[in-house]
Amino acid sequence: MRGLPLLLALFVAAVPTRIARAAAPKEPPKTAPTPTDAEVTDSDDSEDDDPEEEEAIPTPARVKAMRAGAHLEAATLSEQVGLKIHRVVIDAGHGGHDAGAIGPHGVREKDAALGIAKRLAQKLKSHNLEVVLTRGSDTFVPLRERAERANAAHADLFISIHCNAARRHTLAGTETYFLDVASNHYAARLAARENAESDQPLSDLELILSDLATKSNTADSERLAARVQRSLTSAPMSKRYRPIKDLGVKHALFAVLIGAKMPAILVETAFISNPREEQRLKNAHYQEDAAQAVATGVLNYIEDRRRVAGVY
pTM value? Predict the structure, then answer.
């Protein structure tokens, strides 16, 4: 009975509040609007307590973060860990006794490729990049040795410069390749022509080992190829040398790229078998512009990597 006075006191204190609630006018119950078919969602996936779900229009900061997040999802491993580009190996195709393709008026691929490669080297050096040429004169370097030189130099990028050729002299355009199984019959034939100078056929074991060594660089090689291809086929090149046909980024088993332990591409600057493009390849001004376009593509690729690394 000791607790009886305390219980009576609590009951008396609560009575006025209950009376006030009972006397207050009651609001009609709220009914939820019937959702349309487009508004019906799975209740298990809804997050009613998430304040961000209530924002009808994302803030600029959130939009920027969302874009950065989408970029990071597609970022390569080397981009995510912030590997920097310091040294580039530039390979001028063919050379010495190997003239490469020869145009209708006698322009040789080895000469045009060397002219563009040497100009490209100077442009990259002006941006504080270390550059190594696989050949700086009219000398022959075996295909396999070119990638080996890039590996020995601890290169961060490998770029091989070439001129395209075809039986039909009307074919024209620019294309850039990275190492992978040929994307089509045309790419396979082109790779076979470029690989013809190799006196040693590639064994299955070499292809398997090369695949393991280059697989981690495939995504980076494709991105580098895309940047270079875009620069070679857009302004100012597309305005100065009309028409320039964009043949796109492709992949094939080029022997010169096999074994490279860094992102590696092969650039087919123009068709030396096409009379119009043959004259371009011979011209020093075109070689200068083509070198500048490739350099711009390389620098844009490097800037992409820096931007991604800065987010982490």
Answer: 0.70
